[in-house]
Automatic annotation (TrEMBL):
It holds the Pfam family AAA_26. This is ATP-dependent dethiobiotin synthetase BioD. Belongs to the dethiobiotin synthetase family. It is an enzyme of class 6 (ligase). The active site is at K37. Its cofactor is Mg(2+). It comes from Comamonas terrae.
Length: 227
């Protein structure tokens, strides 16, 4: 069973796009791939009389294994805010055991599981629990998505350092060119690439700015081993 945990330098940097691309790529050689949005903050009508999170729906569309919502999105919080606040507002205490149980059930059925975090590495899930704790409990290699924009160099290095401190392997990183107006993007990429190389983290994808995000077009660019 292949698994990874996708984190980012921030919220809104392209983790969902990157996770869907990983699923499409892995599906080329692994018949049963599934995405997991362990903790989702924000829900929309699902068109079937219920509620669903848009990241969960995107991951589901990129998965080849259909599973109950309790497995691919064990925690769904209505408000699109930090999960610890969304949970408090919903009267929910986010704890690890139900999430780990859902992950184990997915891992038992799938050849590959891609778990998308929420926001960045240190986002709180409760007063005592955070995204990093979840990644450590899952014991998965981490893929870091860097939203390429002014400020991302600092965020990328801080996040890489924190992942290293957690003891989890940093399997690689992806750049997502979220700001088409960014000045000197290649110079930023060059510095990031050298820093991440020094961390032993290869660049897995350089995702161009896409007016309509297309995970299939990213999947075909991933290195061997991921597809
Ligand atoms: N390379 C890109 N080009 C253009 N738009 C992008 C790119 N990457 C991400 N986006 C857009 O930026 C927005 C945020 O991306 P996305 O939802 O993947 O972020 P995220 O990191 O998954 O955030 P969250 O913490 O909410 O899960 C989306 O509208 C997405 O389509
Ligand atoms: C609601 C949003 N789309 C994400 N799922 C959650 C982002 C939490 C960010 C918290 C923070 O770092 O300030
Ligand atoms: Mg997302």
């Amino acid at each position: 069973m292949i698994g990874c945990f996708v984190t980012g330098t921030d919220t809104g940097v392209g983790k969902t796009l990157a996770s869907c691309a990983l699923l499409h790529a892995l599906a080329k050689h692994h018949p049963r791939v599934v995405g997991m949005k362990a903790v989702a903050a924000g829900a929309e009508p699902d068109g079937q009389g219920g509620w669903a999170n848009e990241d969960t729906l995107a991951l589901r569309a990129a998965s080849t294994l259909a599973v109950p919502a309790a497995l691919d999105n064990p925690v769904l919080l209505p408000d699109p805010v930090s999960p610890h606040i969304a949970a408090r507002r919903a009267g929910v205490q986010v704890t690890l055991p139900p999430i780990l149980d859902a992950y184990r059930q997915l891992a038992a059925q799938a050849d590959a599981v891609v778990v998308e975090g929420a926001g960045g590495w240190r986002v709180p899930l409760s007063e005592t629990l955070g995204i990093a704790d979840l990644a450590m409990a899952l014991q998965l290699p981490v893929v870091l998505v860097v939203g390429l924009k002014l400020g991302c160099l600092n965020h990328a290095l801080l996040t890489a350092e924190a992942i290293r401190a957690s003891g989890l392997p940093l399997a690689g990183w992806m750049a997502s060119r979220v700001d088409p107006q960014m000045l000197v993007p290649e110079e930023n990429m060059d510095w990031l690439r050298r820093q991440m190389d020094a961390w032993g983290a290869p660049l897995l994808a350089d995702i161009p700015w896409q007016a309509t995000p297309d995970p299939h077009s990213v999947a075909v660019t991933l290195p061997r081993g991921w597809q």
